Amino acid sequence: MTGFLIPAAAGFAALCFGLALICNLWCIRRAESVPDQILALDTMTANAVALIVLIGIIAGVPYVFEVALIFAMTGFIGTVSYGRYLLRGSVIE
Amino acid sequence: MSLLFDLIAALLLVAGGTFGLLGSWGLVRFPSTMTRLHTPTMTATLGLWGVLGAALILFAAAGEGAGHEVVVALFLLMTAPLSALFIAKTVIWRAQRQNGAAGAAGQGWSGLAPAGGVAGGGAEPGRPESDHHLSPAKHDSAGNHPD
After folding, report:
1. Mean pLDDT of the A14-41 span
2. Rounded to an integer, what distance in angstroms lies between the CA atom of residue A16 and that of residue A75?
């Protein structure tokens, strides 16, 4: 992965996902209800997974995909348990 | 051949980054929670797929591909609708509770009361209470059985 093209494109994508994370933080700060905040948090998880994969592309490390997978699982379980807590009042009945 | 792979991967990276940024920008721009639900579940997932496709191409071209990117992409494909579903259920439940139709657990779809007037998910604070939600013997017109 030498050359100029891939680091430039990956840097652009990392910049985009960093801006997306800032947008999500702004959404969490400004949200008028709790489901909005859960939604922004879920999007933050997806953007963080993309940033982890981009770190793997830039550094040339193929081991980050397990990290990305586990982070995506954690984010999904967090979103579902938070929604379930709001719906039922408890996570595990 | 390597240049071709690099070109395709760079194109996927740029498209993925743009889609990811658009997904989060839509989260800022859209007016209500139900409309805001669309951008992360579709656009941001597409952006993530672009990045994962670029990683797949690059690591396969470097001879280190193990298909882990496909696993991550499939996991996102499965979980993005589920989390959107849970958030939508939360929004509907809160709108119903604001309309005075709480306490309908065990009826309708997955613990929610049979849908009467929660169109669009927007909270309608001035909406008068109808006894449609509160009478347990009466089913809604969509034919949802209360089991």
Report:
1. 92
2. 20
